[in-house]
Design goal:
Elements: H1 8-14, H2 24-44, E1 58-69, E2 72-80, E3 90-96, E4 102-109, E5 119-127, E6 133-140, E7 151-157, E8 164-166, E9 184-194, E10 197-205, E11 214-221, E12 229-237, E13 245-252, E14 255-261, E15 267-274, E16 279-287, E17 294-301, E18 307-313, E19 322-323, E20 325-326, E21 330-334, E22 340-343, E23 356-362, E24 368-371, E25 377-385, E26 391-398, E27 406-411, E28 414-417, E29 420-423, E30 432-440, E31 448-454, E32 457-464
Parallel strand pairs: 1-19
Antiparallel strand pairs: 1-2, 2-3, 3-4, 5-6, 6-7, 7-8, 9-10, 10-11, 11-12, 13-14, 14-15, 15-16, 17-18, 18-20, 18-21, 21-22, 23-32, 24-31, 25-30, 25-32, 26-27, 26-31, 27-28, 28-29
Length: about 475
């Protein structure tokens, strides 16, 4: 997760009581009360997320521990229950049966002040060799710099993944594993399996984030309980970047994929993994997202083998009682050339409402304006025959007189959405461009009513406003976020 920390000693005195000896269940109860108190204001904000996973109120950042377990998609996330700005971190929790409608669950993890813990940072969720649900996360101690000192802790869950207790073996990984090697910003554990072995990767760097020595570290489990680990060295050193946060390492088809968040746009690498040497050799690389507000992604593998990813969407203003949400899920695949492909999973089609459709519109140089449904949640699917045209531009504008259009354009093998630019090349001889545009509050804060297209031939365009009822279940007014029992 992208950390913005004040001086450690000052932070120690400003942290909530749980960081200075509060019992864990008391900390969860107090956090729950804070969320409940803030929820009415946050839910009343017109810009509050509709289809994106977020907390009922206050600040969230990284998605944590996505796991498909016993018929549910579970998602955890970094939560500051006391403010809509970054602060001490807990783990929030939601689940879904269909990826479209999500249910809020009790806060999963809070800092164990009685055990000398100030914050619970990002991590993963897995099932250990004894069949127990298990969370791994980075534990931050009070009064210590997260850049110089961290430990990796674990928690064991019940069969519903709702109530958790910290492992008596904590810390399950400590800096002593590294011998004489010092790893700075050591955090964000992620579990994967290969050749009947269990491995864990963490991020970090070797030179106080001065650049050039960002590394992904790898460890091998030595027992079924996943409480004993062996350091296997550096899996991969990132060619550039200050550090490597939130590494995800997984197999996709017959190749291995590595995600890293280097205090900038999320990078991916595709290549080969040698389980004997624990080294990764990349063949191709790229950016997971070309926008400026997508960070710290985390993935899950579902029962049919598909791999899904969520990221943290950031950059929202404070002062609204909520801040941040998770991206819609993306289904991952690879091209023959080793390029990452991302598509909305088919379950999201459940959010569609009545469609509006145009076919075979021939657009002159001046373009044409189409009237769209009045809604702040919209999906646009457009098939555009460029013919001899060298560019295409779609301008989406709300009904407000002073609203500025959001422009999506394609020119010279480049796709641009607002200020974000991404390379996009059509196959040789191909002149048809297919676009799928999702406009969903709060990421697009307007009620679109007009679509301006120019030029050339618009073969097929479908506009489908999703349901107006929010598919994320609102929290009950009472007995919500009950502390672990």
């Amino acid at each position: 997760m992208l950390r913005m920390l004040p001086l450690s000693l000052l932070a120690f005195f400003l942290l909530p009581l749980c960081s200075r000896g509060e019992i864990t269940n008391d900390a969860i109860a107090r956090a729950t009360a804070a969320i409940q108190a803030a929820t009415p204001r946050a839910q009343a904000d017109p810009a509050h997320p509709i289809f994106h996973v977020t907390a009922p109120a206050q600040w969230i950042n990284d998605p944590n521990g996505p796991i498909f377990y016993k018929g549910f998609y579970h998602l955890f996330y970094q939560l500051n229950p006391f403010s809509d700005r970054s602060g001490p971190k807990y783990w929030g929790h939601v689940r879904s049966r269909d990826l479209a409608k999500w249910e809020h669950l009790p806060i999963a993890l809070a800092p164990s002040g009685e055990a000398g813990e100030a914050e619970v940072w990002s991590g993963c969720c897995t099932i250990n060799g004894r069949g127990e649900p298990m969370i791994f996360y980075t534990s931050i101690a009070p009064g210590k710099s997260a850049g110089d000192h961290a430990e990796q802790w674990a928690a064991i869950g019940d069969d519903d993944l709702i109530h958790w207790h910290k492992s008596p073996a904590n810390p399950v990984l400590s800096e002593e594993l590294h011998g004489g090697k010092k790893i700075y910003d050591w955090r964000d554990p992620f579990i994967f399996h290969d050749q009947k072995k269990t491995f864990l990767v963490t991020g970090g760097n070797l030179n106080r984030a001065r650049g050039g020595q960002a590394v992904v570290n790898i460890y091998e489990a030595e027992n079924a309980e996943l409480t004993k680990w062996k350091y296997r060295g550096v899996l991969f050193q990132i060619p550039e970047g200050a550090t490597a946060e939130c590494p995800n390492f997984f197999k996709l088809g017959d190749r291995w994929v590595l995600f890293v968040s280097p205090y900038g746009k999320v990078q991916y690498f595709v290549g080969d993994f040698d389980a004997a040497t624990c080294r990764f050799r990349p063949r191709t690389r790229g950016l997971l997202d070309y926008g400026s507000s997508f960070y710290a992604p985390n993935t899950m593998q579902v029962s049919d083998g598909r791999r899904l990813v969520w990221g943290w969407l950031n950059g929202f203003p404070g002062g609204h009682g909520w801040n941040g949400c998770l991206s819609l899920p993306r289904q991952l695949s690879l091209s023959r050339e080793g390029e990452l492909r991302q598509n909305p999973p088919p379950q999201l089609s459940k959010l569609r409402g009545k469609l509006v459709e145009w076919r075979n519109l021939h657009l002159e140089n001046g373009g044409e304006t189409l009237t769209l449904p009045r809604t702040n949640t919209l999906e646009i699917r457009a098939e555009i025959d460029l013919q001899t045209a060298k560019s295409i531009e779609l301008g989406i504008k709300s009904g407000a007189k002073d609203a500025r259009p959001i422009v999506v354009s394609f020119k010279d093998s480049e796709l641009q959405v607002k200020d974000a630019k991404a390379p996009l090349s059509l196959a040789k001889g191909e002149r048809k461009l297919n676009l799928r545009i999702l406009l969903i509050a709060p990421c697009w804060r307007f009620s679109p009513t007009k679509l301006r297209v120019s030029p050339k031939q618009l073969r097929h365009l479908i506009s489908t406003p999703p349901w107006k009822s929010a598919p994320m279940a609102a929290p009950p007014t009472r007995n919500w976020f009950k502390p672990g029992q």
